[in-house]
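Dear support,

Our group has been running a series of protein-ligand predictions, and this particular one with fructose -6-phosphate is the one our PI (initials K.S.) wants archived with full inputs and outputs. We had some confusion internally about which version of the output was final, so please treat the block below as the authoritative record. The input we submitted was:
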Amino acid sequence: MCGIVGYIGNRNATDILIDGLTKLEYRGYDSAGVAVFSNSEIKVCKEKGRLLNLCEKLEKDPITGNLGIGHTRWATHGAPSEVNSHPHTSMDGKIAVVHNGIIENFEQLRSMLKEKGCYFKSETDTEVIPHLINMYYEGDIFNAVKKAVAQLEGSFALGVISKDEPDKLIATRKQSPLIVGLGKDENYIASDIPAILSETKDVYLLDDGELAVLTRDGVTLYDSEGNEVTKEIYKVTFSENAAQKEGYDHFMLKEIHEQPRAIADTLRGRLSLDLPVKFDDLDGELIKKFKKIYIVACGTAYHAGLIGKTAIERLAKVPVSVELASEFRYNNPLIDSETLVIAISQSGETADTLAGMRLAKECGAYVLSITNVVGSSVSRESDTTFYTYAGPEISVASTKAYTTQLASLYLFAMFLAENKGTLTDAELSDIKSELYNMPQAIEEALKLEDEVKELSKKIYKEQDIYYLGRGVDYAVAMEASLKLKEISYIHSETYAGGELKHGPIALIEDGTVVIAVSTDKSISAKMDSNIKEVVTRGAYTICFANEETKASHESSHVVVMPNRSSVLAPITSIVPLQLLAYYVAINKGYDIDKPRNLAKSVTVE
Ligand code: F6R
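Confirmed final output from the archive:
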C-alpha cells in the first residue's frame, strides 16, 4: 500500500512528483504530501484526502526545486490526517523521509529516541525513521540511512533527502517494492513503474536490503553492507498508454475489455495445438514427484485458486487444497518436500501470501508463484515463477488479473496432465484447443455488456444480493459477489446451490434478488431446482447460463453466455458478472477504481 515517488534533476521536482503521485493514487489515497529542497531548505506540503487537495494547497503556495520526494498514503499506523501523512521530517527539518511498509519495532525505537530528546508530531511508525537517520548523521546521508535501516524491523521502501546534501536522493527497500528510474541528467525513484513511465523505461529493480544513491548525473547501488553492486537495467516493455485509461471511463472497464488481449498474451508461446504445453522454467520431471498441492492466495486470487483446484484434480488427478493465505500458516499445514505450493498474487507483494510462501519453503516445499509483477517479492522468493501478462492492473477491483490467473492455472493443469499422462491424446487436444480459442470466447462474452447494463438498472437499489452456484460456478459466483460488494457496497453472499435449504433460504422473501450461475450441463437440473426454490419464495432471479443450461425458465431473466466445457467455463462466465458489478456501481455513482477502505496491494498482514 502507499505510493512513493522521488526526483533529482534540473526540472521542477514538484511537478514531476505530482504527476507520479497521480498515477500512483491507486496505491493509497487517504492523504498525500511532498518534500522539496527549495531556497536552501526542505519545504513540506501535505494534505489529508485525495491528491487533489494537495494540488490545491500547492497552487496557493507553490514550492519549486530540483530535488524532492512524494507520497500517497493508505493508513496503517495513525489515522488519515495531515500530520500523519508523509513526508516525515527530523526535528530540525533537515531530513525528510517517505516510507511504504510497517516498522514493527517502532515502539522500542520511539522510546529510545524520546529518551534522547526527540519529540514526535505524528502517531505513525514512520516518524522514527527521520529521527533515527538524524541521530546517525555525521555529514554523510548515505551512511546515516545505512545505519538507521539496520535498526529497523519490518518492511520498508524509503526515499530520503537531506537539506545538507541537496545533490543526493537516497533510496532503499526491504520487503516492499521500490524501483530506480534512469533519465538523462535526472533520475527517479518510485514504488511502482507507472509512476515514472512517462519519464523513462529504464529502471533498476532494487533487491531487499539494497541502497541507491541518486544524483543528477547517475545512480550508484550498494548492498546492505555498503559495498557497491552492479545490476542490469530492466527495460519496461509496456507503454505508458497501458497504464492509462485509453478512453474508457474507468480503469476497471478498460481492464475488463482488455481480457482477450491479456489471455492471449498469457498463453502466447506456452500453448500451441500441436506441441507440449510449456510452463516456462518448470521441469516436467520434477513436477511429477509432488503428491499434494496447496494453492495459497488472498481475495480474488484465492477465488482463482478454487477453480485451479478443480482443473488440476480433474485433469492431472493430484489432490489440491486451496488456502486463504491469511489462515494458511496458522493452521499447521502438512507440508514436506513432496508438497508443491502454488502462491497466486497479482501484485506479488501481498504480505499474507508472502508469509505463507516463506513457511512453505521452511518446511521444504517447492514454491511456484503465479504473479503479474516482474521482479515482485513473490517472484523473487519462490523457486520458480510463472508470469501472467495482464499488464498493469490499476483498478482496485481485480478483473484481468483474475482471468489471466485462471488461464495460468489451466495451463499448469494441462502441463501436469501431459507429464503424468492422465489424459488421452483426444482429451488433451480438445481442452487445449478450447483454451487456445479463449480470447475469442471472451470477446463473445463482452457482447453481453448492453444486456447486463440494462439489468443493472433493475437491481442497483437493492441492499442485499445473493449469488448461487454449484461446482466451478460456485467459485465464479463467489468472485462475482466480491466484485459487487467491493465497488457497489451492496451486501452480498454466495451459497452453494445445495446449501440453500440448510439455512440461507430463510433470507429469501418477496423481491429478494438472487443471481445464479449455471454453466455445467451435468448439474444444471439441480441448479434449476435451487432456482425454483427461491422463485417460489418470491425472489427476482437472474441466471447466467449457456445454450445448454438455459432451460432455467423459472428465472426472471436468463443471460445466455458462450458455451464452454465445464472446467474452462469460469474464464468466460465471470466476464458479464464483472460488467454487472461495474454497472451497478455506476448507477450508484460510486468511485469505481478507488472503492472506499480498499487499496490495490495489501502489503501488511
Ligand atoms: C479484489 C482484489 C483483492 C486481491 C487480494 C490479493 O478485487 O483485488 O481481493 O485479489 O488483495 O491481491 P494480490 O493478488 O495482489 O495478492
